[in-house]
Amino acid sequence: MNSKKTPVYEALNLFFYYYLKKRDIEKTLSMVTDDIYSLGTGNGEIALNKIQFRDLITSEINTLPISIDYRILNYREKERDKNLWDCICNVEVIVNIEDDKHVIYFTRLTGSFENKEGKILASVLHMSEASIHQDDNEFFPLKYVSENISKLDNASQHELLEIILEMMPGGIIGGYYQKNYPLYIVNDKYLNLTGYETYEEFLDDINGEIINTIHPNDIDFVNKIVDESLKVSNQYELEYRLRKKDNSYIWVYDIGRKIYTAEGKEVILSVVIDISEKVLLNKRLQKEASEDVLTGLYNRKYGIDLIKKELKSGTKYAFMIMDIDNFKALNDIYGHSEGDSILQFIAIHLKNTFRTNSIILRLGGDEFIIFLNKFLDENIIRIKLDNINQKYNMEINKKYIESKSSISFGVVIGDKDIEFDDLYEMADKLLYEMKRNNKGTYKILNI
Questions:
Q1: DSSP labels, 138-164
Q2: Residues 296, 275: one domain?
Q3: pTM exceeds 0.70
């Protein structure tokens, strides 16, 4: 439906009235739910609840406190469920500079609203940059609309540019599309993001070339993505590590577009947004999904998946299952905290003994798997296993002698195509043959 007199439309209109026209933080917050999700509002950051949303709009309003005019255009809504609505529209934002001079900024809004105890509140707000007047693939959504805009003096044009740059989400930087991207333009947000106080300081530190802001290990990747993207369109987007003044690095999302100067030179203008928290969160989630909490080794599922992939490579491998003998006795005599300590002790020595590209995982309880692709010579494997056994026995004799604990291995060496379950069964039989007849040692089978 497209009526502009619905309760949802009125709630949206009131939200923008408080947010843009009145710049009233508390009244703006009164129009959203406690669990509001917001993307792209203000500085283009993300809010996952009302507290984060308050911080986001407070920062924006403090930066630009002036009253801003707006119009809601092309409004549509639909009822998704009882007391739940989705809507979409364009929002025309007008920033007045002088009596006859202004800038118009177009965004696209998608939102969800709920009826909370008789009051309609926004629960999701996603504002994306999309001009209703833009050409195909146009990136920047700002338009000069004053009829006399071309007649503005240099000071007024500079002021307009400053407002535009401040309204863009994230820092803005531009470089000539040449080797090492010689610097063309940079705004204050970018300087603040990277810790610089002045343009001159930044220019001197990077030796006038944007390439010097990028982590050395990411430079080839950035060059490749930019070049390949600009062969098929005038825009690119990527993520990389950006150097700050103090030589630390942050992860950024960079979306850029190729334009031409009045002299016909190619320039890349890009918006750079700090995504370090997002990257760290993803890394932490990835780590939690793959790591055994107690030992820091791979967990069962992730480790087995890695081994299955390696088994398809067709190279020679060594597959080892390790089990702690008399582990229950150690727990019963010395306590489970000491049992955990011995598991951590083993994990440390397994990682120190085998090379970093080995796959070492805690299978569960007191069982471990070590998988070597392109494995070392069998005699070297024997030396390493003897070394692990020796260190373990020394630790047991020093701290847990009454447990009479030891460690046993079942080892399969081969190069033929085999399923993980079949390989595991072979090694497991070897292991328990050792545990029955000769604890504290290992048996190796070549297949």
A1: ----EEE--TTGGG--HHHHHHHHHHH
A2: no
A3: no
